[in-house]
Design brief:
Elements (H helix, E strand, L loop, with lengths): L1 E6 L2 E4 L4 E9 L6 E7 L6 E6 L6 E3 L7 E6 L4 E6 L8 E8 L12 E2 L3 E6 L1
Parallel strand pairs: 2-11
Antiparallel strand pairs: 1-3, 3-8, 4-5, 4-9, 5-6, 7-8, 9-10, 9-11
């Protein structure tokens, strides 16, 4: 089992940047694929990005491709989401998640979740 804690959210102007972190504890972090999801008010949780256990493979939703970068440092048991050129439509609670089985795009493929961190982008 792994516990996840996100940090790094906040308020930023459109065009700005934020880096989210996801600190893992418990079972070996490198045992899990990792994903970032987000949920805006009144909307369903949606996939943003995922990364394989080793970090060698990444995948992005079209809405964030070219602006967001997912990475991980298994020596620090931490995952990251670098978000650049932020837009008001990126406003959401961002969640990191860990999967024992696969690097998927569906929230149902992930076994463990953090509590979320709020990202607000003003226009």
């Amino acid at each position: 089992q792994v516990q996840l804690v996100e940090s790094g959210g906040g308020l930023v102007q459109a065009g700005g940047s934020l880096r989210l972190s996801c600190a893992a504890s418990g079972r070996t972090f490198s045992s899990y694929a990792m994903g970032w999801f987000r949920q805006a008010p009144g909307k369903e949780r949606e996939f943003a990005a995922s990364i394989s256990r080793s970090g060698g493979m990444t995948y992005y939703a079209d809405s964030v491709k070219g602006r967001f970068t997912i990475s991980r440092d298994n020596t620090k048991n931490t995952g990251y989401l670098q978000m650049n050129n932020l837009k008001p439509e990126d406003t959401a609670v961002y969640y990191c998640a860990a999967s024992e089985l696969k690097q998927g795009t569906s929230q149902y493929e992930y076994d463990y979740w953090g509590q979320g961190t709020q990202v607000t982008v003003s226009s």
